[in-house]
Amino acid sequence: MKKLTFKSENISKLYNRKLILEKVSFSLNEGTSFAVTGKNGSGKSTLIKILCGVLSPSKGTVEFSVEGVTVPYPDYYPHIGLVSPYLNMYEEFSAEENLTFIAKVRNLGSESVKRAEMLLMEFGIYDHRMKEVKNYSSGMKQRLKYCAALLHEPEVLVLDEPSSNLDQYGIEAVRKFMKLQKQHGILIFATNDKDDLEYADTIYSVENGKA
Amino acid sequence: MTKMIWNMPIPSIPLRMEKREENRTLQFIETMTLTTSYHIFVKEFVSEFRTRYALNALLMFVVTTLSIILFSIGKESPTQDILSGTLWIVIFFSAMSGLSRTFVAEEERGTSMTLRLLVNSSSVYIGKLLYNFILILFLSLIIAVSYLLFINEFEVKSYEIFWITIFLGSAGLASASTILAAIIAKANTKGTLFPVLAFPILLPLLLTCINATKLSTEGAFLTEAVKEFQILISFTVVMVATSFLVFDFVWKD
Lengths: 211, 253
Fold this sequence. Notes:
The structure holds two protein chains of two kinds. Chain A has helices at 44-52, 95-105, 111-122, 138-150, 168-184, 194-197; strands at 4-15, 18-29, 32-37, 59-66, 69-71, 80-83, 156-160, 186-190, 202-205. By secondary structure, chain A is an alpha/beta fold. In chain A, the strands form two sheets. A five-stranded parallel beta sheet of chain A has the order 6-7-8-3-9, with helices on both faces. Chain A has a four-stranded antiparallel beta sheet with strand order 2-1-4-5, covered by helices on one side. In chain A, helix 2 crosses helix 3 (111-122). Chain B has one domain (36-252). In chain B, a hairpin with a 2-residue loop joins strand 1 and strand 2. At the A-B interface, helix 2, helix 3 and helix 5 of A face strand 2, helix 1, helix 2 and helix 6 of B.
């Protein structure tokens, strides 16, 4: 088991001169989970993007370390798995092609083929793996995003609205992985769903700025 | 242990596979650039051949502009200087109508964030630059061959100079338009902004290309065009080097 820490210190974000986030600080260790709640437009997704390194904070730092060695921000993205409404798959490719592309650019090796198949089965889209993603329903696209996020076995799994667009089977599959991630890595998610919040060790309200 | 989802028996999946890379960040950074760029390059091509967004637009543009030039020339006999200029006007505007697609499409489809999370910015830049270069080279070759076939007044006497100019001009166009495409991809007025930004940057390149093409129609020796080639190579090297340095900022912010 690796020793992982994920730390955020005084993150603030100004967007169009408006302060979206103010001094968000928390520290997470391996085997913990962190939920972000708040009204629509309160900055949940902005915080998620900053934590994943796809958006720079106006102030503050995010730090990720493995076995005590700090990986500079935002170079730790190989360790992150993100599912977000802002993140899409290539619609002109099939699910299999999307996962193959991700495996290749992440340099995951031949083992990823087996893992991709297992994830596609787990999320119930194995039979549709050869279809182009543009023909998928929104729920199937969401399931594929989970397959893509989990393909490289991320140390930190970050989910923005984990249950959105999913039916009951999809939600069950997602929650199974949330539970596993919480046990073996770090889980961060943004939600307002009370059932999802049961998987959180710490709940942070963006509006109040309190955990 | 099996579980039923959508009436399909599935095996229970372990969260972690048995073998696991020990230093993922280091391994990732070591293998990142060239191999990853190649995969991005291949992805761009497969994507383009399936959607044909850029290719169809570019080919239609070539057909339309060449037809207009043919009709406007009529029975007139324009000078080689004018014909050299119009050749590069066609190549420039064709490039403007298609080369921005590589980044604009990522933004429109919402895949730019996916790519940002998957690979480092250098790999994205190199992959997209190579794709744009091959696309504009292919297009320039089609334009040049069509120009030679259909415009009888355009007579090239030194083919070495002509083809080297086409090659180097395409490299220069790709080098400048790739970084510009990345800059304008997030703007609301992408279509108009791209040629407006590109024109002042590409002006020295276009003037040099026109001069070199003119030399090829005059039957100049290869050594006489060396200065033009040096300018074209320098332009491309400066553009690629500068773009490589600023791309990380453009891509992430």
